[in-house]
Amino acid sequence: MQQPDRGSLRAPLDLRDVVLTHTRKPSHHGLSLLPTLPVKPQALADADLIRLRHVPLPEGGKTARDQGRQPEPLTAAREGSRSVHKLILWDIDHTLIETGGVGSEVFKDAFEQVTGRKIDRLADVTGRTEQVIFRETLDLYDIEDPGDYFEKFVQVQAASYRARADEMCQRGRALPGAREALQAFAELPDITQTVLTGNPKPSAIAKLETFGLVHYLDLEIGAYGTDDSIRPNLVPIAQARATTRTGHTYTRETTYIIGDTKSDVEAAHKGGAQIVAVATGDTTVKQLRDAGALQVLSSLREVTELPL
Ligand SMILES: [Mg+2]
């Protein structure tokens, strides 16, 4: 029998017991994502707790891809009543998912459909918003924009992602631990989670749908590459939308970006949020730390305990 890849087994096993602690100290708003269990007994005695238990996968059962379509069952129990409302803003590419190269192919195809120009390269994409990537790619090929190219590109790109969903499922993946982290946060009534991404909204939704991650997130209040081309500007946009949705105010202390690039770190610092960086893209732990991220994980598989 073919062995599942390491990531498909490790994440659910590591996160079978997820403990989220809410300290009672009013001044403590820091989010820390600690790599190991168990938690010290005294820390638990002082904390409000959420315990999450994943129902184990059947022996030789689902692949990571199957899990993308049908999340494993989860039970949750809340202990304690403290409630400081927090907003979590997820980056998408190389934080929650990878497209396995489909993303750049879709970009090139959509670019050609809109501009009539076949291209074999595009501008640097890492951490950048789609408007910037698109306009710099136009410049790269000395193409003049009649004014509506990006608007058309957004629609064509999303349609292409949807048309190639099965292929993206085959070649790409939800990153190890991503689903479990989303599930854990989704169980908390005092946490709202959505996305902050350079992707246009329609493409962001198409990608997350492909990997079965949409129902953990409130995507209507997210901030997207179609809202602004400057990433830090997306933070107050998401905060304002979340406030309209929930009635709570979200500040730098109660807003968290989780992302994989120096641009995510910059967006948090300049836009008004905490940053939890994950080195699952091209940017190393050291580079993320050097950019100013205090919390850096090598993978979302490290999320087994969440003191907020
Ligand atoms: Mg990213």
From TrEMBL:
Position of the signal peptide: none
InterPro entries in the record: HAD-like_hydrolase_sf (IPR050155), HAD-like_sf (IPR036412), HAD_2 (IPR041492), HAD_sf (IPR023214), PGP-like_dom2 (IPR023198)
Annotated region (Disordered), positions in chain: 56-79
Any single Pfam family the record assigns to this protein: HAD_2
This protein's record includes keyword Hydrolase: yes
Domain of life, source organism: Bacteria
GO MF annotation, one: phosphoglycolate phosphatase activity
Family matches, as Gene3D superfamilies: HAD superfamily/HAD-like, Putative phosphatase, domain 2
Biological processes per GO annotation: DNA repair
Keywords tagged on the record: Hydrolase
Protein name per Swiss-Prot or TrEMBL: HAD family hydrolase
